[in-house]
């Protein structure tokens, strides 16, 4: 008998493109995701994805299956969330979405103090906003604002994040600092290219934007290491060697501890406005304000 979780897993792999991203979206282990996919392929008797080193590419059978089940799965997710909301009146429940790094830094330490239930979901901002519009989520922390007519979602700016250049403490940044001080951007770019670079799959847009705004061109190289998230990058750079471009608030503690070095904030500020995206028909506004207050007190 088919397990509904197999279909949920299949959907996340299809939409995210890799087992790693799917496991993050499902808040599950990557081996568990692989087991679900293998079980589903065995059940339907067809290969649903072509495995490559970088991406899971849907086969024609995979595309057909996705189109066949997606509407039903989305309706089921909406029904599931609404059912929870109507049957748990004694204990309010809030469903929130954001990047995993922000959750770990801002919300995770405060969870034991909350007097309501909390369901957290991680993923791409576009996917989280889609879930917000569908009523699956109540609040999303996002740097992207979408303007849709007749939407039940409102956006409230509350902070800014600035993309900065950081280095591991074992990185020789003498020449880099010299070029920054002399404002010789051509030599600075050449020197930066000689170093080991880290980035994450969900931050490549920030990487390219910082480079374009400061050097007036797209980066002509690929980072040596592309990791699942920024937390992994900071751990690798902790007393290590290499460079990375990351949001400032995610590395402030490590900079203060001298575990990593703030190298450059850019000649042009590469900033993103962070928004609270929430539903206007939300029932638990008190609980929503609690989460908002946590963010505003820490950022």
UniProtKB/TrEMBL annotation:
It comes from the Bacteria. One of its GO terms (molecular function) is DNA-binding transcription factor activity. Pfam families: HTH_1, LysR_substrate. InterPro entries: LysR_HTH_N, LysR_subst-bd, WH-like_DNA-bd_sf, WH_DNA-bd_sf. The keyword Ligase does not apply. Gene3D superfamilies: Periplasmic binding protein-like II, Winged helix-like DNA-binding domain superfamily/Winged helix DNA-binding domain. Keywords: DNA-binding, Transcription, Transcription regulation. Residues 2-59 form the HTH lysR-type domain. The keyword Cytoplasm does not apply. Belongs to the LysR transcriptional regulatory family. This is LysR family transcriptional regulator. It comes from Portibacter lacus.
């Amino acid at each position: 008998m088919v397990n509904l979780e197999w279909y949920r897993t299949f959907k996340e792999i299809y939409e995210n493109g890799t087992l790693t991203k799917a496991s993050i979206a499902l808040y599950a282990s990557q081996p568990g995701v692989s087991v679900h996919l293998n079980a589903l392929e065995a059940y339907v008797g067809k290969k649903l994805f072509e495995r490559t080193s970088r991406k899971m590419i849907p086969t024609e059978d995979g595309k057909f299956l996705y189109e066949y089940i997606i509407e039903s799965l989305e309706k089921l997710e909406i029904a599931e969330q609404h059912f929870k909301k109507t049957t748990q009146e004694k204990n309010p429940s809030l469903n929130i979405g954001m990047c995993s790094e922000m959750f770990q830094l801002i919300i995770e330490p405060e969870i034991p103090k909350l007097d309501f239930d909390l369901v957290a979901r991680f993923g791409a901002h576009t996917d989280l906003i889609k879930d917000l519009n569908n009523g699956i989520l109540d609040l999303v922390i996002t740097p992207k604002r979408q303007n849709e007519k007749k939407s039940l979602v409102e956006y409230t700016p509350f902070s800014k994040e600035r993309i900065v250049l950081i280095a591991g403490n074992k990185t020789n940044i003498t020449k880099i600092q010299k070029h920054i001080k002399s404002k010789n951007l051509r030599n600075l770019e050449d020197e930066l290219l000689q170093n080991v670079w880290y980035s994450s799959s969900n931050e490549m847009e920030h990487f390219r934007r910082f480079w374009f705004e400061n050097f007036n061109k797209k980066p002509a190289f690929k980072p040596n290491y592309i990791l699942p998230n920024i937390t992994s990058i900071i751990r690798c750079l902790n007393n290590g060697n290499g460079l990375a471009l990351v949001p400032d608030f995610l590395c402030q503690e490590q900079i203060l501890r001298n575990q990593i070095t703030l190298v450059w904030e850019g000649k042009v500020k590469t900033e993103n406005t962070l928004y609270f995206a929430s539903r206007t028909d939300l029932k638990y506004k008190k609980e929503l304000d609690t989460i908002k207050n946590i963010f505003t007190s820490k950022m």
